[in-house]
Design goal:
Structural class: alpha/beta
Mean pLDDT: 96
Helix content: 40-55%
Order of helices and strands: EEHEEHHEEHEEHHEHEHHHH
Strand content: 15-25%
Low-confidence stretches: none
Oligomer: single chain
Number of strands: 10
CATH class of the largest domain: Alpha Beta
Length: about 260
């Protein structure tokens, strides 16, 4: 499938989606959000894809924010629609995908860029990365889930400070805060992401999807994460992957999961 603003490549069970707007530091506009939704949908529905990586083209930016020129003249209702549609199409969509999503943060991840990285299931950053939610410096707040996901990841106090000051943190601080899992050099970023992805790919994709569902439930308002875990745990017993995994364990061999 051809896109104007992104690149998508699948190789050996790994789909890498790259935002490709270098002249705009990979900033998100509506077209890019729609293309990302489509690319994630295609990858998630592809049974051969076991892990999805989201990253930015080039060495400067993952995503340097939203394309401000697109919405500078929006009304109240248009602004609300922008956030609502964006969350549904991309940010919440990615967070709830059954296929694991790793964000390879290869530079600036600001505003909507950091929100996209936070929607991924976890994050790995290059040592030149800078992260922040600077929206209040423009007279607006994060609208793609940033006020909710950032406190979940780094705690309320730190999130309040980072959002209120419109500041940026470097990759090592982000790691210390728990915002990213690993920090490495620009050159080693993708090899490290792919190494971790390969470990994920050895396991049951059905069980991983169930784990994502259960973990996310614990952060949903009105949801009981423990009940979700019980339900997903029980469902695993009816899968071919469970039969293969337990049989392989008892036979002292490596499991060959069918993915169903």
């Amino acid at each position: 499938m051809n896109y104007n603003n992104i690149l998508s490549e699948t190789n050996k069970g790994l789909t890498t989606i790259s935002i490709n707007r270098p002249s705009k530091l990979n900033a998100l506009n509506r077209e890019t959000i729609n293309e990302l939704h489509q690319a994630f949908k295609v990858a998630d529905e592809d049974k051969k894809t076991k892990v999805i990586i989201i990253t930015g083209s080039g060495e400067k930016a993952f995503v340097a924010g939203a394309d401000i020129s697109e919405f500078a003249d929006y009304s109240v209702s248009e602004g609300s629609d922008l956030a609502s549609e964006g969350q549904a199409l991309l940010f919440d969509y990615v967070a709830n995908l059954a296929t694991p999503v790793i964000a390879a943060v290869n530079g600036f991840a600001l505003g909507g860029g950091l929100e996209l990285a936070m929607a991924a299931h976890f994050r790995i950053a290059s040592d030149n990365a800078k992260m922040g939610l600077p929206e209040v410096s423009l007279g607006v707040i994060p609208g793609y889930g940033g006020t909710q996901r950032l406190p979940q990841l780094i705690g309320k106090g730190r999130a309040m400070e980072l959002i209120m000051t419109a500041g940026m943190i470097d990759a090592q601080t982000a790691k210390n805060y728990g915002l990213v899992n690993h920090v490495t050099s620009q050159e080693e970023l993708m090899p490290l992401v792919e190494k971790i992805a390969s470990k994920i790919m050895r396991n049951s994709s059905v069980a991983i999807a169930a784990a994502i569902c259960a973990i996310n439930a614990g952060f949903e308002a009105g949801e009981n994460g423990f009940n979700a875990e019980i339900s997903q745990f029980g469902k695993c017993f009816g899968t071919a992957d469970f039969k293969e995994g337990t049989t392989a364990f008892l036979e002292k061999r490596r499991a060959d999961f069918p993915g169903k």
